[in-house]
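OP here, attaching both records as promised.
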Amino acid sequence: MPDRPWKAEERQVAALFGGTRFPANTGGPVDVETDGFVVQVKHVKRMALAELEALALEIERIGFQKPVPKIGVVSIKRRAGKKTPRLLILTEAMWRELHGGGGA
């Protein structure tokens, strides 16, 4: 079975976070999980901002619903060659949670 670029991206993100990659056949929205993070990985040609926003809100909801809340992050990389940067997206609520729930 050929190694798909999106699978490689998920493995790289799992290594970046030091977490476990969940295979695509598990059917869930979480691709990578650690003790403190849940991550949705996207490897796309393009994505609308509204779609990215919806993913960020969904992974935020999943992170807050964990028995011990976790930070939800969307990792997105544009499929345009190896030089494209990986972006790590989180909502303001996740940012605040990451920094102890404090104010701005």
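Record two, same layout:
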Amino acid sequence: YSEQIDLHTLGSPCIRRGSHVEPDSHGQWQADLSPVDGPVLGPFRSRSEALVAEESWLTDNWLPAAH
């Protein structure tokens, strides 16, 4: 999650892990979205690339659309 807004202003937040961004045995990075029944993305050369892919997948496939 990001801290752009204080989630407590919306009520009692229920935060759960959507993925794990970790290095592999070759020093590359993967975004494992299995906590939300998603794929493993990567490998990526940098952690920041994996984080961008993670956020994009979660936004497109898991988070409810804002109306």
